[in-house]
Amino acid sequence: MDTNFKIGRRAALREIEDVKHDTREAEDVLDVAVAIAEADGEIEPEERKVLEEIAGVLGLRLENHL
């Protein structure tokens, strides 16, 4: 995996983690991520893995946002 990608991924997850204590914001972030993943009509397995990771960071259940 490219080092710049790893750094960017960690930075993005830190930004996402910043809203985990505000339930409304956390749900909004996850809902937007789901909408982006669904934009082409379906959520691919790799996209679902990322969504699960985001949901975990936010302390949410992905199934409640699909």
TrEMBL record:
<feature type="domain" description="Co-chaperone DjlA N-terminal">
    <location>
        <begin position="21"/>
        <end position="61"/>
    </location>
</feature>
<dbReference type="InterPro" id="IPR029024">
    <property type="entry name" value="TerB-like"/>
</dbReference>
<dbReference type="InterPro" id="IPR007791">
    <property type="entry name" value="DjlA_N"/>
</dbReference>
<protein>
    <submittedName>
        <fullName>TciA/TerB-like protein</fullName>
    </submittedName>
</protein>
<dbReference type="Pfam" id="PF05099">
    <property type="entry name" value="TerB"/>
</dbReference>
